[in-house]
Structures are given as structure tokens and as C-alpha cells.
Amino acid sequence: MFNAFLQLLYPKLCFACEDPLFESEDFICTYCRISLARVDYADNSPWWLRAKFDGLFTYSEVQTFFIFAAGGRVQHLMHAIKYKGAQDLGKFLGFWAGQSLKKSHFFQEVDCVIPIPLHAKRLRERTYNQAECIGNGLASGLQIPILPLGLQKSLQSHSLIGQDRSHRFELLKDSFEVLADVRGKHILIVDDTLTTGATLLAAAEKIKAAGAKEVSFFTLAALK
Ligand SMILES: [Zn+2]
Predict the structure, then answer these.
(1) Interval between CA 78 and ligand 1 midpoint (Å)
(2) Which of 52, 61, 157, 175 makes the best surface tag, with the fewest CB within 10 Å?
């Protein structure tokens, strides 16, 4: 009763469309839950997602949850997770994705999840790593462990702006350091949004070089 009263005074809003939520709804409304652009896990991972890595790196599987469109409701969600402190939302969506992926038999061979880290300075500014929030939810949905500090991001000495693709990649690659023992393991690297794939590729190269058996990728949203 008291909760209903509070909800009347300060309605909780859907993180995607910003309409007020019903008491029975968490984080996103039923309409958004059903209608947000998502990847169909009944099929193989989409070609446009695989095309970002094919021929560049030998990976095992790649998947995403939402299809990102600038200015849309998915962008609202991702913005809230990244910049507005919505850590629980990241965990909630990661868990939802993890459960759905498990049901559709994706990532069955994965040993553990490693999130893309933030550089220490940026972590201090933001106070949390959004990829870790998503990774935590995903790992519990998939029922596999997470190594939250498996990777470390060191200071990038040069700006990536104006660099060509291969030079960018070299700079990015050297900014990651593997801190966990990944030898012989199948690692699922997790990030919030996938655009070019350069960050995931750079982290994957380092993890493979540290002795991992296989690498797979998951992001909560991906640009088509
Ligand atoms: Zn909504």
C-alpha cells in the first residue's frame, strides 16, 4: 500500500520509453520488454554481427541482445547503464540475456566471463564499470563464473583519433593486460555496446596470447 502511494508521488519510469511503470514492472515496461529490437536466439548469431570479426580473428561464438539504433529506446537504456548510474539495470538486462542464451544453448562451452575493463582513472570518475554490471548478470543467467578483474586497462598513451585502423588496433591491444590465469579456458568477453569491434578484438588477442583455448564475445547491444 505504502509502495503504491510512493509510486503515485514519485513514479518509477521505464528506462527505455520513460512512461511510468506499474507496480509489477521492474526497470522496463511490458510494452518495451516485448517490442525492443532484439536478436532472435532461435537462429544462429546474425551475419552482420559475425561479419565484424570474420577473417580478423578466430573466435568461437558471438552474440548480442539488443539491436542499437541512435536516438531510439535501446540508446536510452545503454545511456542509463553507462552514464546515469543504473548498475542494477545493467545486471537485470545481463541476467535476462544470460537466461535466454542458456535456453537457446549459446555459450555452452564457455568456462568464464571477463568484462572489458575501464581505465582506473575513468573508473574513479564513473565509480563503476558498466561492462562488469552486465557481465555479473550474464554470468548468473548462464550459470558460469565471472572474473571481474581478469583484464586491466592501462593508460592509452596516444589518442586513437586520426589513426588508421591497424595502428588504432595496435594501440588498443597494448592497452590491455591479462591478470587472470586463462590458460586452457574458453573465455567469454563482455562489453556494453558493439560498434566496430576493435575493443573486443584487442582484448581477445591479448587473452588468446595469454593461453586461452577459445574466445567468444557478448555485448548487450550492437550496431547493425
Ligand atoms: Zn517502456
Answers:
(1) 14
(2) 157
Residue 18 belongs to a domain = no
CA of 35 to the centre of ligand 1 (A): 9
Q: Which tens digit of pLDDT belongs to each residue from 104-144?
A: 999 999 999 999 999 998 899 999 999 999 999 999 999 99
79 part of a folded domain = yes
On whether the CB atoms of residues 111 and 185 are closer than 8 A, the answer is: yes
- Domain of residue 49, CATH code: 3.40.50.2020
Average pLDDT over residues 6-17: 83
Angle at 65 between CA 207 and CA 90, to 5 degrees: 80
Domain count, the chain: 1
List the beta bridge partners of residue 68.
223
Sign, CA dihedral 176-182-185-187, equals negative
Q: How far is the CA of 76 from the centre of ligand 1 (A)?
A: 10
The verdict on residue 27 lying in a domain is no
**Residue 104 located in a structural domain:** yes
